[in-house]
UniProtKB/TrEMBL annotation, chain B:
GO molecular function, one term: phosphate transmembrane transporter activity
GO cellular component: plasma membrane
Membrane topology: Multi-pass membrane protein
Name of this chain's protein: Phosphate transport system permease protein
Signal peptide annotation: none
Entry function: Part of the binding-protein-dependent transport system for phosphate; probably responsible for the translocation of the substrate across the membrane.
Organism (species): Microbulbifer thermotolerans
Family, as annotated: Belongs to the binding-protein-dependent transport system permease family. CysTW subfamily.
Listed Pfam families: BPD_transp_1 (PF00528)
Length: 277, 298
């Protein structure tokens, strides 16, 4: 009897969680679809966003995201490879690096925003621009990306390394042709985490890439990210809630789409590396 | 450079190794720069407090009136802690129960769907939770105890946000417990409830605790969702229905126009947040390491 009650209690909690989560997602979906139309994606916002669309905001979001990814991916992958493949002789240094990265991964995004404002916007003179916003986000996703890729590379069986060595492969060739493809699930997971965090970020962008909702002409222009747009519509614009929900729907769909795209690109790229070359 | 060249004969390898070392050093430098800049920017505030002998004034109540040079951060610090603690108190039992359901009661198909839903929810941006809280939770609370935007609203929204994290990490912790323990419990004829509460949970406790500490760090650093539903009045949180302002929200609200000492004080509060997160990650590192050393039977 007690046993069955306990089982019911656990299932009840799970059901509660599921219904709450469905409530949130359902609300975003229903309220979002009510205001959404295809022209919403391709027109400029009017009446401070109450009507019109989100075209310039989407463009700014994609700018910021691509700057962040283009900076963070090569840098992060390089650091991860170095930590797992070359730093073996420097145990102490790589341990310190790992702990530092873990701490930085937990630092609140708003603190990255403070740094981005002081360093990129003011010290380097980039001002409120898509570039300083993107670079700030690159720094923000770097620690998580490095740590996931590194643990993925570390998890690759040492047999593969010895096999490559026995075949007389150069270490760089072994990394490029064997280790990186073998670690691809971890790299994919790191990429998904990075894209998710960068696309969802609001706090760090308000005072690095700014608030302007015009179409950006270059990365040095200020631009408003989608998440900032949602915040502005719901907090500062009375009657902006339905447009905010539509933007929220676009944001959630965008994150899911980008993640799927990133995963399949990665799969594709590595498949070619393994089987053709 | 012998340590780099050790075991590397190929020339391309040598070049690659050098390049990656430089890259890593650059990344390390950038990340150090973050802490250095936080200290540099908050220095005017810290040193002027030091010289006037009022270094600990920010801890005592003197109000947050930046224009009058009074920077009492204590109410906001307390509000941050209250919101975080409240969210954990709500989310921990429910999250743990969901993990137990996922691990021991759900059939594989249901478990997969549940897990997928949790992962999806863990990826929903915090502004979306904020928007939802502002249009659904706040009006609900306002019906009962106006104005609605309150400590309670922040706790509820935040607990919903950390729930997926707690459930997923706890489920992973439970899954990593050796099956032998469970089989032993079954062989002894224990009830399902006893197996779970007295064998599996204690065996997984250090990993569960590590996950909870990470969720705490996330809750403490959350800005947007809390800013949108908490009401943002600087005051000591006296009751669940009082509007409060947390440290992170304060930075987001005032950074755009802050100058001089005011700006420096915001950087100082960023430094404070970083220190708190640092303590939490250190705690979680210690806890999970001790758990590993003590073994699963600890």
């Amino acid at each position: 009897m007690v046993d069955r009650l306990f089982g019911w209690l656990m299932s009840g909690c799970a059901a509660l969680v599921v219904s709450l989560l469905l409530w949130v997602l359902g609300d975003v979906l229903i309220e979002g679809v009510a205001h959404f139309s295809w022209s919403f994606l391709f027109t400029e916002p009017e009446d401070s966003g109450r009507s019109g669309g989100i075209a310039p905001i989407l463009v700014s979001t994609l700018w910021i995201l691509s700057i962040a990814l283009v900076t963070a991916l090569p840098l992060g992958l390089g650091v991860a490879v170095w930590l797992s493949e070359f730093a073996a002789g420097r145990r102490r240094f790589s341990d310190i690096a790992r702990v530092t990265l873990d701490i930085l991964a937990g630092v609140p995004s708003i603190v990255y925003g403070l740094f981005g404002n002081a360093f990129f916007s003011i010290y380097l003179g980039l001002g409120f621009s898509l570039l300083s916003g993107g670079l700030t986000l690159a720094l923000m996703i770097l620690p998580v990306f490095v740590r996931t890729c590194e643990s993925g590379l570390r998890a690759v069986n040492d047999e593969w390394r010895r096999g490559a060595l026995a075949l007389g492969m150069a270490r760089s060739a072994a990394i490029w042709h064997i280790l990186l493809p073998a670690a691809r699930p971890a790299i994919g997971a790191g990429l998904v985490l990075g894209i998710g965090r960068a696309t969802a970020e609001t706090a760090a962008l308000v005072f690095t890439s700014g608030y302007v909702d015009r179409m950006p002409e270059s990365p040095l222009d200020s631009g408003r990210a989608l998440a900032v747009h949602i915040y502005d519509l719901s907090m500062n614009v009375t009657g902006g809630d339905s447009a905010a929900y539509a933007s929220a729907l676009v944001l959630v769909v965008l994150i899911v789409l980008l993640n799927t795209l990133a995963q399949s690109l990665l799969e594709d790229w590595f498949k070619r590396r393994v089987f053709v070359s | 450079m012998s340590w780099i060249a050790k075991g590397i004969v190929n020339r391309t390898d040598h070049r690659l190794s050098m390049m990656l070392a430089v890259l890593s050093a650059g990344a390390a430098l950038l990340l150090t720069l973050i802490v250095l800049f936080l200290i540099k920017e908050s220095w005017p505030f810290l040193s002027s407090r030091w010289h006037s002998g009022s270094w600990f004034d920010w801890l005592q109540y003197q109000g947050w009136y930046p224009q009058e040079n009074r920077f009492g951060m204590a109410p906001m610090l307390l509000a941050s802690l209250a919101v975080t603690l409240g969210a954990l108190i709500v989310a921990l039992p429910v999250g743990l129960a969901s993990a137990i359901y996922l691990q021991f009661y759900a059939n594989p198909k249901v478990a997969r769907t549940f897990r997928l839903l949790l992962t999806l929810l863990a990826g929903v941006p915090s502004v979306v939770f904020g928007l939802w809280g502002l249009t659904r939770i706040v009006p609900l609370i306002a019906l009962w105890q106006p104005p609605g935007a309150s400590l309670l609203a922040a706790i509820l929204v935040l607990s919903l946000m950390v729930l997926p994290t707690i459930a997923l990490t706890s489920a992973a912790a439970l899954a990593s417990v050796s099956g032998e323990l469970l089989h032993g419990g079954i062989a002894l004829g224990m009830r399902r409830k006893t197996q779970i509460l007295h064998i599996m949970l204690p065996a997984a406790r250090s990993n569960i605790f590590g996950g909870v500490l990470l969720a705490t760090a996330r809750a403490l650093g959350e800005t947007m969702a809390v800013l949108m539903v908490a009401g943002n009045v600087v005051q000591f949180p006296a009751g669940l229905f009082d509007p409060v302002r947390v440290l992170t929200a304060n930075i987001a609200l005032e950074m755009s126009y802050a100058m001089g000492d005011h700006r420096a004080s915001l950087f100082a509060s960023g430094l404070l947040l970083t220190a708190m997160v640092w303590l939490l990650s250190w705690g979680s590192y210690r806890v999970t390491r001790n758990g590993r050393e003590a073994g699963q039977y600890g």
